Each structure stands twice: as C-alpha cells, then as structure tokens.
Amino acid sequence: MGFRDILKDSFLQGYMDVNISSKSIVLILVTAGIFGLYLFLLYRVVNRKSIYSRSFNISLVAMTLITAAIIIAIQTSMVISLGMVGALSIVRFRTAIKDPMDLVFLFWAIGAGIMCGAGQFVLSGILCIGLTILILILECIPMAKAPMVLVISLKNNPSEGMITDILKTYCKYYKIKSRSLKNSIREYVIELKTSQESDLMEQLSKLEDLNGLSLLAHSGEVTY
Prior knowledge:
Elements: H1 3-14, H2 22-46, H3 54-76, H4 78-89, H5 100-117, H6 121-140, E1 148-155, H7 161-170, E2 173-182, E3 185-193, H8 197-204, E4 210-217
Helix pairs in contact: 2-3, 2-5, 2-6, 3-4, 3-5, 5-6, 7-8
C-alpha cells in the first residue's frame, strides 16, 4: 500500500458516514426553532423602522431551522456534504439588505442554525444572551438627535435674510440644503435642529407671501 492509498484511507476514515438518531434530529430542530423564535421576538422589540417587515422576521426562524437541517445532512454523509456545497454555490440572493441590523440578524440566524446543527447548544445560548445584552445596552445609549427638515416656499422672490433671521432665533443649528425657483415661487429645503418647533412654525407663518410651509422629522443620518 502506497502513501497515496494511506492518505486516502485516512481521509475517508475521518469523514465516514455518521448515523444520527431520530431523537437527536428532533432535539436539534426543536432547539433551533426555539432560538429562531427568540430572534423573531427580539427583532420585533428592537426594530424601530417605520416599516416593519414581518416576512423578513419570519424568514429568520425559517433560516435557523433550514441551516440546522443542512448541518445535520452534512454530518451524516460526505457525499451529501459535497453535493450540498455544489448546490448552494449556484444560489444567488438578489434581495437588497438596506438596514445593517437586518444583516446582523440574518447572520445571527444562520450562526444559530449552524451551532444547533453541530450540537453546540450552550454556545448558541451564550451568543444569544451576550448579543441581546449588547444590543439593548447600545440601544439605550443616548445619541445625537436627528435634524429636522423644513420646506418653505414664498412668492415674489423674497429676501433669504427674512428666513435666516428667524432661524437664528429659534434654531440651534440650520443649513440650507437646496434653493429652487419656479414661476416666481422660491422654495427652500433647510436642515435644522430646534426644541421650539411650534414657536418656529408660528413665526414663519407670519411671513408675507407665504406659499407653503412644512416641518418634517426623519430617522436618517445624525448631524453632530
């Protein structure tokens, strides 16, 4: 027997088919389902977007179970594991993940499924507890308040100084983001930070030739 045969036998012995009992499979899938439900509830609690994607949240539970099942299949047979690699390599996911936290939960679900499928229940539990505490602590840390957006339009091309004088009085910060002129109507889009929204709106409403006035709050990037 040559060195190549010895190496081949050693490789095959290390990856012999493993028989996993039905009881173990049920235990793994039930545990993976519990961790998936935990992610479902946690995502619903920490999600603060105006549009809550229930389908994405449900997919976290399914992703945990599917990943755990794949790991079980890979452990049972080397042939299945090689076929699984080939099958998954042709899958293309084209759904864009816009929120970084969605990506965190997606990888978390996959990681929990892998750990459950490998029988590392304690590791998966420690990860869930640690990440939950970390996320809740970071969510409670006060951050800078997101600026508001003021949209104001005036007729007859008024002086810009009238608006800036009022903004200096009621705003801690302001910046004119855009100016537009159409049919003798000048429109301004202004980013500002103020704690006197009502007083500011009341004062701006007294401007002559006012055509429109809107003050919008958003949850985008924060200006420090």
